[in-house]
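Students often ask why we bother encoding 3D structure as a string. The short answer is that it lets us treat folding as translation between two languages. Here is a chain of 94 residues written in the first language.
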Amino acid sequence: MSGMVIEEKYHHIEPGEYLEMWVIGYNAYEKKENQKRYKIFIEEAMVYNLLEEGKQYAVAATSFREDKDFEYVYQLEQISNQEDYQLVGNGRIK
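And here it is in the second language, the structure alphabet:
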């Protein structure tokens, strides 16, 4: 698990088909000049809705495919704000 700062939250809806939700963030413990941005898909709306942009979370995720904008895309396994809650979720795999 590593510390991740959530920069942005996104979602995409195909009515009657599927809902995709993901966040973009970076490792809070890397030096500014070495920071990479990560894209993590989240399946459960409850988990997605609890996340706030600009906040830091302890995140465990696994990569499941390569991406042109982000070297790899990840699926969420576990997330915690280290104060109030710890949640488990899955990312949508195409």
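Translate back mentally: The chain has a mean pLDDT of 85. Keep this in mind for the problem set.
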